[in-house]
Amino acid sequence: MPSFARLLTLTLFAITANAATTGIVPPSQRGIPDAFDIQIIDVQTDTTTIEATVPLVDQKSGANDDSPPNHPVPETVVTAVDGKVLDVGISARTENRMAGSPNLAKRTVPGYTQVFAGTGTRQTDRDGSIEGTAYLTYTVLNNATYDVDGCLNFCNRVNGCVFANLYYEFNNYLLDFVFSEKSNLKCAVYGDVHSAAEKTNRGGQQQIPPPAGLTYVQHSSGWSSKTLSDPAPPEGYELVFGPTGGANNAPGYMGFAFIDKYDVNACAALCNTRGADRNGGACQYFNIWRALVNGVPTTYTCSFYYLIADESTAVNYGQGDLKVTYSRGYKRKPLLLDGGFEGYTCPSASEDFCFATSYSAWVGTSPKGGSLDATIFHYAPYARVGHGVGLLGSASGVDSLPGTLSFTKALSTVAGKEYTVGFFHSSVYGGESAAKEAFVEVLWNGNVVKTIRPGYEPWTFYELRATARGGDRLAFRGGKAPAWSFIDDVNVFAL
Ligand SMILES: *[C@@H]1O[C@H](CO)[C@@H](O)[C@H](O)[C@H]1NC(C)=O
């Protein structure tokens, strides 16, 4: 048994050897990082800006333009982003995305209820048609009868329709002389339910030269489907809560958009394509809700978060004239579980520091002759959040070879589909000069799809896109001790 003095000498020698060129205590010996740079700023939902933007948008419309009947339902349009109203709304869809349908269950005509009645058709009766949100399209029905069933059947055929407004429009040149139907009975359909208070289009235009009168509306009735079916979750997402009357007031907020109808697929497409937050990473959650102003549907909000929220923070019910309705939360489904290395724990719960070359989710390998070149640590000071973190570069600092950290499972990807891979990286451990040669390669099925040479850098988010071949493999290769690279909060999401 060596003497105490000898043990001490050995230990000292070990430290000296590791730090031979750098003087840095390596991670395996619980060294202290050059900087504790974890600055996760707690950005909460900016309810003030959202609420101040509501009165600035006008999303009300109806079948009151010159477009012919039966035009296809236009794509969902973004009307405001982060408090800025868009003059010309932009389509919420993006290149790689299939335009998902709202998937509302088909209803039979008996599945409707009357919301309001028309004025009648006496000579003096005057009425108004609806100008409201989420207008979809309209049709012209034969006016031999006041064809409620025909109108509700039309609503059944239009994706997303939950409400129909049936009315006569007189002295309309196109209806009287141009459109093939030669009828003045209009059926306008909507993706939201409206009330008699919204009968604001009362005609008044001179469309046919005098002695013809001005346009006017008669017998305008409103019908809504009895049940508003739940929308199917967007692809790559799952429902977290809702519908409730509370919008999220939650941390990890990234911003918001207003869209012109209640369209969960549009919110998802916006979340998928919203640029990552440097501090928080990719959009991982959205909250969709409808704003009622004095009881009238006014706009549809999508708010975006890099942290996953739930119903416990869905406590913004609106204030004053504004009421939150149909609030639902959806989170993005991760393809890679335990990208935060939190599944790795020390043998005893009382230990707060340990490391290993592998556990169930990740395995680290060193090249020939290397030692501990890719490891997993359980130690809060090294992790971005929580306790777990991956390390590239010899944990004991005995060599300067790069290691490889591989996710042990094949990802449940679909061949041909695009995915986004995100991760956080930090290379501050050994200080500025030690970090000069820091590098990390992202390997997708063994191929390098991204390389970073960041030098000295605090926790920073990176992302890339990769096309799947199905059952794909993800790994990180890098580190050149003392240029250590810590990797944390890795995610893979469908685009
Ligand atoms: C039916 O529509 C035609 C064309 O707009 C119109 O001339 C006629 O007066 C309408 N009939 C009724 C009963 O409203």
Automatic annotation (TrEMBL):
Q: Which domain of life is it from?
A: Eukaryota
Secretion signal, residue range per the UniProt entry: 1-19
Q: Which UniProt keywords apply?
A: Signal
Q: Per its record, how is this protein called by name? A: Fruit-body specific protein a
Which species is listed as the source?
Asterophora parasitica
What lineage does the source organism belong to? Eukaryota, Fungi, Dikarya, Basidiomycota, Agaricomycotina
